[in-house]
DNA sequence: GCAACGCATGCAATCGTAGTGCATTATTTC
DNA sequence: GAAATAATGCACTACGATTGCATGCGTTGC
């Protein structure tokens, strides 16, 4: 349990009981989760508290939000090099149209994009939809 | 006006009064629009009718939806080669963090993505956020 | 022309998620 | 331990998406 506390403190997040539960839950996930997912899995937790917990996590560079085109925001743990000053784990997200799961693909790099003249890039979101490895078989 | 009717019929969409109004409006836009945008601009139109109109357009390959991370779905006219069997105008979308407009960049091609083994790509959504040419100055 | 049919439209209502306000509770500081 | 500060829980609001249903309207067969 001390391990979880340390992970929070490294990101300057005070380790409350609720936050430890949420972090523990996030560490066990293999795909990005919505607030509703969390609410269902972690019984007895208030949705708004979860909302503010992941918001805090996001602001401190512990989780990033994933936009997978379903309309509901999902969250996943960041790679280690994210901080409160910004998220640096630029990677692809994959949405499986069969199992509806959304995966981070941190190994898959985003290629350089040539924008038209005058456009100034600040951020890139690359979402690939299709069948995940488990569903393809 | 016959021109508009023809455009609908080419996509197998029956040209009703409402649909002509919506298509005319979409042709005049320089950025993707939300249902609320349409509702405000086209007075006296019912939101649900607009919803179903663009849905019909989308199903027939006349418009495509644009997910720009704002949480609200936007729509824009397709390139000519989209049909009811699928949208084929794979291109980048650009969201300007200053003016909040979302542009299709149909000239900017999406580079090839190498996915991990087992993943099967069906669709790609590439969203770039930053400053548009007008706002950068 | 007219009746019957099917699709399009408009209105009301529901649903689901995001977000805010505020009182209560826990934690830190002195 | 008391005061100050931060986190939590509950109530409620906001808003876009979506459905159900009644009505309107154009097309077709007669
Ligand atoms: Mn990710
Ligand atoms: Mn587009
Ligand atoms: Zn899958
Ligand atoms: Zn702009």
UniProtKB/TrEMBL annotation, chains A, B:
For the ligand (Zn(2+)), the binding residues are 96, 99, 132, 135
UniProt remark on cofactor binding? Binds 1 Mn(2+) or Fe(2+) ion per subunit. Binds 1 zinc ion per subunit.
Q: Which UniProt keywords apply?
A: Iron, Metal-binding, Zinc
Gene Ontology molecular function, alphabetical: DNA-binding transcription factor activity; transcription cis-regulatory region binding; zinc ion binding
The answer to whether keyword Lipid biosynthesis applies is no
Gene3D superfamilies, per this entry?
A: Winged helix-like DNA-binding domain superfamily/Winged helix DNA-binding domain
Q: Name one Pfam family in it.
A: FUR
Statement: the UniProt record of this protein carries the keyword Metal-binding:
yes
Q: Which residues bind Fe cation?
A: 87, 89
Q: Which InterPro entries match?
A: FUR, WH-like_DNA-bd_sf, WH_DNA-bd_sf
A biological-process GO annotation: negative regulation of DNA-templated transcription
What cofactor does this protein call for? Answer: Mn(2+); Fe(2+); Zn(2+)
Tell me what this protein is called. Fur family transcriptional regulator, ferric uptake regulator
